[in-house]
Every structure is written in structure tokens, then in C-alpha cells.
């Protein structure tokens, strides 16, 4: 402790973490609730795994990003690490519970990456993921189509997102086929795939330079790749690729394209096609994907990167192994994407030798939160709490008792009825103080007690914030014994009025 | 990796942690939801703090239990530890945000203690706490009374708990006064307080032995303490103590008793008194309490401890500093309590020098979960998911197409209407398979598609599990274009039928 009882360290949360409070946490809870509702609509069940896993479980799953894993100190006993994502713990769970052959599971929880934080971009060391994954053997592309339907429902359920998101999609087998056709050596495919994945942030020239100079790819091979990865568009891209003889002649590409054809047929039924962009430059960094891969981007979520910046970054990355350096190109997350996922048929088998095919999606809620908040207009007021009624005492002067017992009794009656209620924790509060407290909390209703009125078994109900001249501006007297019914009636009336107002406003 | 792709380590969660899945996680979510609703009813707002804090924040807050704190490995940068409870992070938050002078905050999150796990008793290394705390300067005992009202609403809202819980309550100032009166030296008060706290698990003889032999207390002083800590009962205990001249003459005890008198008056209004047991043997281990302290116990939650067991444990504890030994007497949690809390007016000031008085409660959800589960009878079936409708294809044989596109289209229509819907991800599923899938998920409604019926614009709606002879046992045909409305009408009808059935059953 320092002097004056102050501690001699800076009072803060650890680097890359933050407290969530006030209307921020209310809005984030609303986003969780929208997402959870969609997950449940599709039969999702939740699983809650521990925040840390045995270190061996995470080992060998994240490639060079393993250096970002948070380890627990060795205090004797098992060696553990904080989870890096929700996918590997899910695969561990499936491998461990051999009786489970299929499941639709969702998981909303925090994950941990000892990355260089960039708060303004919404990149933190502790952040939430909302994952939905389907495990099990089914007829081709049916679970994949449903995951993308979930993406549509989530973004169309969030305020300000309808029509403002794009699902970029590709297929690992198509990509692998293209690399084969272009003549990429087998042992360089993953490396070249990672380079291609940077095309959403870096210009082709920079990616080509990386392939040729850093990864040692033949420059004619790189140029061939350049022709393919430019392809981008709707369902017709699949047809165009299948019409190219060298592509149709490659087994891997052909299988991937046939799966994409089926998927597009299903997405047409589900109304998802308009949001889809088949994009040959999408590669996704993680090794474990084996089929479709996708990322959701939105207006303004992809930062513009100048060529100079990109070149600078490219150089930096080449040399750096320091996890505290800027990693704007984090391939596991993709700056600019608000959700990402794909099919991974081999991960569960890595743990148990029992392969269970899986496909899933992870929503980056912290980023979705920032964008949603920016899109909401001032009229969409978020209340800090949900209190419906503030119970007040009317009176003042020497004889004023404060009516504390009476306020408590009314509050008890309302709580018993499940009505969210507060009153001021003061023996003799001023009326103005009570109104101020109600207004600060945005509480819509006041129940006002007066000595004389109570003696006649009556209390006053007043809707807050009514305009001058409104017939009930000053409130109405109701029987105390009928207070709960009277309030419920008024809550309902006010809700209907809001609907009417909205209809009028939008007409 | 071992042979056959199996890893060469045991596939499990770390010691003292578990996965939550299936109906367990559904029931736990219901408990969270009941608790959250009560918290919001009283104006609570939530705050989400990071899972780890700077180690200095936790230092010096938990006495000898500090050895149970999980540290993160030093990987360069700040030194952090996993949170041990939600109270210290809350105090850190208040101290850090100097503009916040008052708040009602709730927080439902996991905490971490490197304790010896005892799964059967519900003692884990990772477990949930549900905390509600009120910070701010208010008139005496009003926030304290509201916290205890919250306790009542939570337990009466949980299935099987009404009338089956007791709130044990005491006051630090009364206890300190009693120790002074008995002649406990000032520097031994906290130590003797901890010994007294064990009376819920150990017999008086054992606690007396600890005080005299281990803590070096004069045996006549111990015997005097024995007389006071036997006192237990309702509101009359306060009156009895105030009638004892030596108690009324002690400033600390008098102040505590006067506060208890006010509290009892308020709890009478709130209907909480019947559940209250004023208990002079309740001491609570944590140093930071300064006023009322309470613990909630329930039938069967307090394990019977034989004298021999207690003596054995007493001896063990005396010697042990090993965190991996059995610590059934963990004073921070109290085996047998399902919720605990109290007033702590000094904790925030430890961080900032700005004292903010606080009072709060922490619900031990994992233990509440185990007891609730044991109390629920078999008729209270918990469904693993919430799906309302299973869309099926009727047919078979060579010409059967499987009606996949048609099933997808109906599912899309229902999802668009917000109805939770599944279908089997197979091109040509057998009807029996589809019924089995619906039954496994406990799905209450089937929509059955047949080629001929579809051509007439019709589909069949069938409520699952109707008894033989019921007029709608075989389902009813409805217009496909009116499916959503027809289903909504039937959902509502079925809900009302459940209410009628319950009324008949309980009459």
C-alpha cells in the first residue's frame, strides 16, 4: 500500500482486457440473445467447457500461432493453458465422449490470445466467440447449408445489418486443385495458401512478392495463381470453373466444385444466395479446414490498406517472431471479418482416432458489437436497467414521515407480482430526488404515495415523460388494492401505443 | 501422437473442472435465468470483468487462502492471476471508476480456486458464482434488507426450494463485542472468529480445543464464548442480547444489535423473517466483512460430521499447508451453504482510498444445481433442446424422391416465422428414422409432407405422443399456405391444455 491507503500499482485491467459495463454490456447481451435465439431455432444445444485445458490438448493445433497461447503457471500438478478458441475444446469433448456421434452444439464464451492488442480495431487478448458447430455424418452439404442459413438469420436479426453483409466462400478442395494445376509443389501448398489468404488486406503485387521472394515459388507459377484468385462472383463462378478443362480434369477441384453446386442449390432455397460471394482468393489460415470455408465481411469492416503500409507490414512479418508486434494479418481471425468458419473433418480424429466430420461458424461478437453500436442511431436508446416502476413518497416539511414502510410494502407487492421495482433508500427523500433517480434509470412508471391518499386506499400512477397537455400528464389515482392489475393494463397500453407510433412514423 | 492416431495423453478436462452438457446444462441455464430475473427485478445491472486480474489486485485479500490462487505463467509483460471470486474484481472496478458512487451490480461468471476438488460435494476448481452487490451510501439497513429479499425471491423461484432454506445471519459488530466481553485479546479476535465459524461442521468440544490448544486462548474465556455462540433463533435473540447488561454496555455489540433491530423490522415487511435464523455461531472466514453476515443453508446441504472425523480433520489442518489436502472446512465457501455474503465497507477503500460501503450476496450455483436436480421428480422432464417442429417426408419405395427441397422450403418458411424447426439431413430418409429423431429430441410437433398432399397444397400437422383414441392422433391436414398460423394456433392450444391438465392434477 502507498500513502493515503492507495495501492502502489496502477489500478487497471490487464493489457488487452477490459471491463464491460453500462449500456455497452446491455447492447452486447442483446446481441448474445439474438444469436442464441437463432442457434436454438436450429436445434442447437449448448456445451460449457472449462476455460483452461491440458496443454497437450491445444498443442499442435494452431501452427505458428501457438506462441499466442496463455499458459497457467506450473504450481504443481497438471500443466494447463487458457483456451485459444472454442473449436479445439469441442473436438476434445467429442473425442472424449465416444457415445456422441452427432450433435448441433453452440458455445458462447471468452477465448484468450496473447496477441498485440489493438483496441480500436476491436482486437483484444480476452474476447468472446459465439460458435455453432454441427458434428456427424449426413448427406452432403446439408449441414453446411444450414450453417450459412444461420449466418443469414443472425445478421438479419441484428439492428442495422440487413443487406449489409457479404458471405465470402471458397472450398479447400478447389483451392488445392488450383494450386496443383498451377504447379505449386505439394510441400508448399499450405504456405502458399496462407499467402493467398492475405489478399483481402494486401494488393496482389505484395502477395506475389511474398510467394516468390519469401516462399521461393517460381514466378510463372505465381502468375498462374494470380489468374485464378481474381475470380469472384455469384453461382456462375462454379460453372465457369467447371468449363475450364484443366480444372474439370483435376480430381480435387472437380469434387470441390460439385459440392459447391449442391450447396448453391440449397442456399437458393434458403434465400442465402444474394449474400454469397464465391471468392477464389479466400483461403483461411487454419490448417484443419478440409471443405467449404467462409468469412463474413461488412461495409466498413475491412480496413483500407495502402500499398506502402502493406509493404512495410510484409517486411516486418518476415523477420518477426515477437508476439508483441502488430499482427494485423492474423490469419486465424482475419481483420475485417465478423464471422468465419468452415468444414473440418479431421480434427476430432486427431484426438481419438475416431473421425467425426464437423462444420461450423464462429461469430466475432466484440467486433459485431462495435459495428452495431456505430450503426445505431441516437433514437435507439438503450436503458441501463430494466426497472418498470419507481415507488415514491409525496410530501415534505416537518410532519413528513417519508412513508418508508409504505413504500417498502408497495415494492414488496410489486416484486411478488414479478414487476421490476425500485424506490429510494432514504427515510425522508425529497420528491425531486426521487424523480431524478427514476429519470436517471429511464424508469417509465412512477407510483406516488401520499399520506392522505393512502388513508383512502389510493395511490397515484404516473407515466414518466408524457408531453405537456396529455390528459394523464399529472398521473391518475387508482385503488391500492388494484395496483398490480392497473399497472399491467397500462404497461400493455403503452406497448401498443409504441407500436402505433412506430407505424405512423414509418408510414 | 500414439499409434492409430490416438494421442499419448489421457483425454480429459483438467483436475477439478468438468464439461457441462445435455440436460445438466439446460437445468443450470434455467437456474441462471431465474436468478437473473430476480436481480433485474431489483434494478440490477451487470458488469463483466476479465477472467484474470493483475496479481497485485488479488494480493492481500484472501488471507491464507491466497495459496489457492491460480497464477498465469510469466510469458513476459504483466503478471496476472485468475480471479478467485467476483467481489474483489468488483471492488477494483469501483475504485478504478471514480465517477461511480453507487451501483446495484450483478455478475454471473466462473471463479477459480486451486483447492482439493471434491466433485461429489460439488466443490470444484472452476465453478460459477452469481453475485449481487449494492454499493453506495444509503440510510441504514435498506440495501441489506433488499439483498435478503433477493435471497428469498431466488430460492422461492427455484423448483423444490420454497420453505426449504434457512438464512443464518449474524453481525460482525455483535460478534466483536461478544469477544471483547469474553476477554479475547484484540490480536486474537480474527483467529477466534475463524474457529467459531467451524461450528456448523464441528462440535463445540473440537472448536474449544482448537481455541485453547492451537490458538492459546484462556480456557475460561473459551467457556464464556461457548455460552454466547449457543444463542440461535428468531428476532427475540436480539431482544435477549440487548437485555444482557454486559452486552448492552459494549459499544460495538450495541451498535450491531440496533442495526439488527432495524433490519428485522424491514425483513418483516418484506416477508423474509420466517426464513431467518439469527445465529451467534456464524462468523464467516473472510476478513473484509464489517457488518451483517449471512449464509443460506438447506435441508441436506450440511453434511453430518462425526466427532472422530472432526478430530481427525482438526489435527490434519493444524499441520497442513498443502493446498492439495482435503479442506472441507474452507471458510470462504462453507460446506453446506448455498449462498453467502455480508456487508464490506472497507474493501473498495483498500484500492483507492475512496471508501464506498458495499453489501452483497453470492449464490453457489453448482451446489444449488446439484440439490435442485436431486429434488426434481421424474415427471419434470427437461428437454435437451427447444425444437418445436420436425419436418418429415412421407413415402418409400423406388419412386420416393425424399422430398428434400420441399422439406427445406417448409423449414425455411418456419425459420422465417421464428419457429424452431429441424428435419433429417438425408436425401431419402425412412419415416421411422424421422419419427425416432423427433422423439429423441422430445420435439412436440411433426409436419409431414406427402407427394399427393403437396400437389393439393396441403401438409399434415401432427402432435407427437397423443394417446390412442385421441381424435387428432393421426394428425390433421392443413393448407400449406396457412401452416405458420395453424401451428401457432395449435402451440397456444397445447399450452392452455397443459395448464388445464396441471389444474386438474393438483385439484
From TrEMBL, chains A, B:
* Chain intervals with Basic and acidic residues compositional bias: 319-329
> Which InterPro entries does the UniProt record give?
aa-tRNA-synth_II, aa-tRNA-synth_II/BPL/LPL, Anticodon-bd, Anticodon-bd_dom_sf, His-tRNA-ligase, HisRS-like_core, HisRS/HisZ, HisRS_anticodon
Domain Aminoacyl-transfer RNA synthetases class-II family profile residues, every copy: 16-384
Biological processes annotated in GO: histidyl-tRNA aminoacylation; mitochondrial translation
Any idea where this protein resides?
Cytoplasm
Q: Which SUPFAM superfamilies match?
A: Class II aaRS ABD-related, Class II aaRS and biotin synthetases
Q: Name one GO molecular function term.
A: ATP binding
Q: Which reaction is the catalytic activity of this chain?
A: tRNA(His) + L-histidine + ATP = L-histidyl-tRNA(His) + AMP + diphosphate + H(+)
Q: What does this protein do?
A: Catalyzes the aminoacylation of histidyl-tRNA in both the cytoplasm and the mitochondrion.
Protein name (Swiss-Prot/TrEMBL): Histidine--tRNA ligase, mitochondrial
Amino acid at each position: 500500500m502507498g500513502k493515503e491507503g492507495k495501492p502502489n500499482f496502477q489500478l487497471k485491467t490487464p493489457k488487452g482486457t477490459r471491463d464491460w459495463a453500462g449500456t455497452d454490456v446491455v447492447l452486447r447481451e442483446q446481441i448474445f440473445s439474438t444469436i442464441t435465439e437463432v442457434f436454438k431455432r436450429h436445434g442447437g444445444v449448448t456445451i460449457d467447457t472449462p476455460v483452461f485445458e491440458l496443454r497437450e490438448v491445444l498443442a499442435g493445433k494452431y501452427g505458428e500461432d501457438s506462441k499466442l497461447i496463455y499458459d497457467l503457471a506450473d504450481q504443481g500438478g497438471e500443466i494447463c493453458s487458457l483456451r485459444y478458441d472454442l473449436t479445439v475444446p469441442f473436438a476434445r469433448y467429442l473425442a472424449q465422449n465416444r457415445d456422441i456421434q452427432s450433435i448441433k452444439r453452440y458455445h458462447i464464451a471468452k477465448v484468450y490470445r496473447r496477441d498485440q492488442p489493438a483496441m480500436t480495431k476491436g482486437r483484444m487478448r480476452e474476447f468472446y466467440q459465439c460458435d455453432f458447430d454441427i458434428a456427424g455424418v449426413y448427406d452432403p452439404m446439408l449441414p453446411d447449408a444450414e450453417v450459412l442459413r444461420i449466418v443469414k438469420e443472425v445478421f438479419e436479426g441484428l439492428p442495422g445489418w440487413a443487406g449489409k453483409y457479404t458471405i465470402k466462400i471458397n472450398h479447400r478442395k478447389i483451392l488445392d486443385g488450383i494450386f496443383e494445376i498451377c504447379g505449386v509443389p505439394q510441400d508448399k501448398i499450405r504456405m502458399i495458401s496462407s499467402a493467398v489468404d492475405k489478399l483481402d488486406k494486401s494488393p496482389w503485387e505484395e502477395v506475389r512478392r511474398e510467394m516468390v521472394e519469401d516462399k521461393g515459388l517460381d514466378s510463372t507459377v505465381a502468375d498462374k495463381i494470380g489468374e485464378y484468385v481474381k475470380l469472384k462472383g455469384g453461382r456462375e463462378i462454379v460453372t465457369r470453373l467447371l468449363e475450364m478443362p484443366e480444372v474439370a480434369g483435376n480430381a480435387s477441384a472437380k469434387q470441390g466444385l460439385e459440392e459447391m453446386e449442391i450447396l448453391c442449390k440449397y442456399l437458393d432455397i434458403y434465400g442465402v444466395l444474394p449474400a454469397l460471394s464465391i471468392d477464389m482468393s479466400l483461403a483461411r489460415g487454419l490448417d484443419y479446414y478440409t471443405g467449404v470455408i467462409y468469412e463474413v465481411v461488412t461495409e466498413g469492416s475491412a480496413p483500407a490498406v495502402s500499398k506502402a503500409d502493406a509493404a512495410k507490414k510484409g517486411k516486418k512479418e518476415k523477420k518477426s517472431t515477437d508476439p508483441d508486434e502488430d499482427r494485423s494479418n492474423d490469419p486465424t481471425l482475419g481483420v475485417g471479418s465478423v464471422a468465419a468458419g468452415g468444414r473440418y473433418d479431421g480434427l476430432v480424429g486427431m484426438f481419438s482416432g475416431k473421425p467425426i466430420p464437423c462444420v461450423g461458424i464462429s461469430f466475432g461478437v466484440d467486433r459485431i458489437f462495435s459495428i452495431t453500436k456505430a450503426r445505431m442511431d441516437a433514437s435507439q436508446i438503450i436503458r441501463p436497467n430494466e426497472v418498470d416502476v419507481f415507488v415514491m413518497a409525496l410530501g415534505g416539511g416537518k410532519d413528513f414521515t417519508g412513508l418508508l414502510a409504505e413504500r417498502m410494502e408497495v415494492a414488496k407487492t410489486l416484486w411478488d407480482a414479478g414487476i421490476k421495482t425500485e424506490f429510494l433508500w432514504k427515510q425522508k427523500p425529497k420528491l425531486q430526488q426521487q424523480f431524478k433517480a427514476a429519470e436517471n434509470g429511464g424508469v417509465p412508471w412512477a407510483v406516488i404515495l401520499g399520506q392522505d391518499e393512502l388513508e383512502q386506499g389510493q395511490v397515484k400512477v404516473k407515466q414518466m415523460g408524457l408531453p405537456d397537455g396529455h390528459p394523464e400528464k399529472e398521473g391518475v389515482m387508482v385503488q391500492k388494492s388494484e395496483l398490480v392489475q392497473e399497472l399491467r393494463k397500462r404497461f400493455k397500453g403503452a406497448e401498443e401505443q409504441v407500436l402505433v407510433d412506430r407505424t405512423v412514423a414509418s408510414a
